[in-house]
Hints:
This protein is of the alpha+beta class and 529 residues long. It contains 19 helices and 21 strands. Strands 1, 8, 9, 10, 11, 12, 14 and 19 form an 8-stranded mixed beta sheet that branches. α10 (304-312) packs antiparallel against α12 (354-364), α11 runs antiparallel to α13 and α16 runs antiparallel to α17 (468-485). It starts with a helix and ends with a strand. The mean pLDDT is 94.
Amino acid sequence: MTSELDHLARLAGKGGITRRDFLGRAAALGVTAALAGTLADRAFAQTPAKGGILKAGLQGGESTNSLDPATNLSQVTFNFCKQWGEFINRLKPDGSLENLIAEEIGSSDDARTWTIKVRDGIEFHNGKTVKAEDVLATLERHADEKSKSGALGVLKNIKAMKAEGKEVIVSLAEPDADFPYLMADYHLVIQPNGGRDNPNAGISAGPYKVTVNEPGVRHGGERFANYWGGDKLGHADQVEIVVINDATARLAALQGGQVHFINRVEPKVVNLVKRVPGVSVEATSGRGFYPFNMFCDTAPFDNADLRMALKLAMDREELLSKILFGYGSLGNDFPINAAYPLFPDDIEQRKFDPEKAAELYKKSGHSGSILLRTSDVAFPGAVDAAQLYQQSCAKAGIKIEIKREPGDGYWSEVWNKKPFSLSYWGGRATQAQMYATALVSTADWNDTRFKRPDFDQLLMKARGELDQDKRKVLFHDMAMLVRDEGGTLVPFFNQFIDAAATSKIDGWVANPQGEMMDGYALGACWLKA
């Protein structure tokens, strides 16, 4: 019961639970009303302590990493940009939006014209004031195909933009009721002049100024004295991310006190980590998934029968049990799960069918082995997952050859470059955003080369449809197209499994939007006094 109460106290201290809910959940744990009231008083009186250095040991850093937020594609750059960068808005743990640089975001009645009002008094790290022109320039740069931004897909619907006084006015080609959620994309760090002058400078308006940038080794920042939201983020004097791609080494660093947080705890060792004194495992269900990606435009994966054979040759139940150890749920070959509103819950779950897989494989006319690339950094247990898949494919007469790639360079040289590889996605705020980022024909991050005009048209209709019943039908049709004709193999949706030295730090609040409190752990937590 003590651990549950500690969790409730941490939620209360960060505003993640109301006093009424705290009292109700404490009572459910058998706590008396008097004691629950005392505990609530202490919990809601909790205030962040200032000072010290917070450190995280993270997987997902490479020597090729850049501070240019347009190129953020792995965990280290994702987490670090949340320390030095500031955004138009962000998703809260409950899925609602919190305005940041935007004071408010409003739309016309037809959801075609959106106005972003820029908040007064926010300062960049270089001393300049954040203006509407900086927000406009940021959106323009990321909407430019030359930027190779990971946000390119979600900005494709923009027809025109302009800055007027404190406002940025965005005109869309088609209505989009989800536009404010698109602005929370983690690539859209607001930079002076949009980052056009030097996108790799690491200058924005976040809680920390960049002081150390050694790609593949470590990154650090010091508290920005003029940060506009200093009561919410930026409690430590300094933050540091140490790149530790090896899972065993990460855990050892946490146990030895070298770091306060680690990400990507392997499911197979969770029970061991739970027994480490002073350490808590923070496992959160969300929208993340671990796919096997096939390029639909590259042989032999350009053959629909072969793609379906490879899908039917996957034993998802075995993978979920032996790779995630239950810390996840089954996938169905499209990137959406029940965490999303309007989830199409009437689609039949795909099952392991080696006989049908063998039939389709023979029909495809392909012979010989199929090369699958994997790496330890793709996701926890990715090498083992590839080997299990190799075994299930063998039962269908399909020979899979596995190539284990080095971690350094995997995201820049293998993912989205090679025709069959393992990967991970953290999910997005809405179904439309997930599809726009990863599956629309023109998206730079279309990592399965799924290019279907009929799918693109469905997405545009879904974006502009305000009737939720009609919208759910469109999302259902999109899911079926991806599931049955796409190159995305989704065996399971994962939980985000982090670990924190909670005997030394406080302020942790579970966030289903992403690992490490959606990247904000270093900024939102603090060292205990």
